[in-house]
Amino acid sequence: MVDARTFVVGIADGSCSEDICWTFNASVWSKDKVFLAGDVLVFNYKPSVHNVVAVDEEGYKTCKASKNAVVYETGHDRIQLPEGGDSFFISTVASDCQRGMRIEASYV
User: Which domains does the chain have, with CATH numbers?
Assistant: First the structure.
């Protein structure tokens, strides 16, 4: 059995602080990563100016969340990836998503 891994979203070279890793151009961060169901994504950000919203692929592409989307707003969100396929996350605050605050967690 493989142990779940933990990924701090946005850390590429250790240069971000814990409070601002989920930031603009985060979509680049996930491009070279492959995730497994059970892995944990940690989103660190300032909750007064950003959020994390779980969306489907269409929501990811259009930067729009459905009315029943799960919204995280703690600033230190730990989200375990479910089984069943890729996961998508965006920030729905202002133009965050359009500015790159979105990631696709592609599974093997």
Answer: 6-105 (2.60.40.420)
